[in-house]
Amino acid sequence: MYKIAVIPGDGIGKEVMEATLHVLEALNVEFDYQFAEAGDEFMEKSGVALPQETVDIVKNSQACLFGAAGESAADVIVKMRQELDLYVNLRPVKSYPGTNCLFDNLDFVIVRENTEGLYIGREEYTEEGATALRVITRKASERICKFAFDYAKKTNRSKITAVHKANVLKKTDGLFKEIFYQIAEEYPDMELDDRYVDATAMFFITKPEMFDVIVTTNLFGDILSDEGAGLVGGLGLIPSANIGEKQGLFEPVHGSAPSHAGKGTANPSAMILSAVLMLDYLEEHEEARRLEESLVAVLAEGEVVTADLNGKASTMEMAREVRRKLEA
Ligand code: NAI
Ligand code: MG
Question: Which of 201, 231, 261 lies at the terminal end of a domain, its last residue?
Fold first, then answer.
């Protein structure tokens, strides 16, 4: 029995969460859900977007499923990453059948450092304009590289590419690259590669099948993750994981999509695939594959899918179809 915090949030976050929980019921895994509130709607009634109570519920759980927040998303998700020290941002780039992916053979993962780099937000105005500080620490670099190697090993992947710009950022990215190769010594079976971020951005378009696991710093990872999402179809399909020492938080990349909210037209796939990432995190690999394959079957058939996939099904109809496959 796993203790799971569930934060549906705002807009379609609530709808894709309901759909996903419906599908999860058909798995051979028991969950003890702890429902918690956060986001715009909660802010309207209480004045805060992320109450301490919600943070505590997540802290006392093994993992968290998060739907989406609206305008308060930064206050909710950024704060949660800090409070829980979720130092890994994990984004799979995987082609699924029946989707608008640009390549139909992709299966790689981006492991992005989530706590430092240019996103520490230390900026200041100067006489000439403005300056931002980019911090790369040994500790954060070591733990993100170690996570990437462990993840690669656990998921039977064989190659890791460190992405950096060490030719220009000689000290910061020089250090990141040096630590990558230091950590690599503990994983002698792994194939190693390192590339400049600009060249990587090009190879995503020209030769994306060359990647297996990418490990990189915060800003580069943010940009490459969205480029990766572009390679494999729309926002309705892209899941993500935020992982720390004690918890993982699993969420679709999309937001509350106000234009779809309340209409039952949102694609539940991104949230369902976020649950697949959670199952893998909990080492329930067999159930993770079963869930993923059931969703893939529904996508491949293309009959009971939502409008963004050129179908006519509602969010719940698509979820029920996935569940039917699971129970078949
Ligand atoms: P969004 O991801 O909510 O929607 C952008 C467009 O993508 C939508 O208009 C829709 O056409 C499509 N889309 C997204 N998810 C879909 C799904 N499941 N099925 C079908 N189509 C889907 O991003 P937007 O419009 O920039 O932001 C809306 C609100 O969401 C804002 O208040 C923003 O702050 C918040 N947001 C929250 C995030 C989070 O909670 N992690 C992330 C991004 C935005
Ligand atoms: Mg982004």
Answer: 231
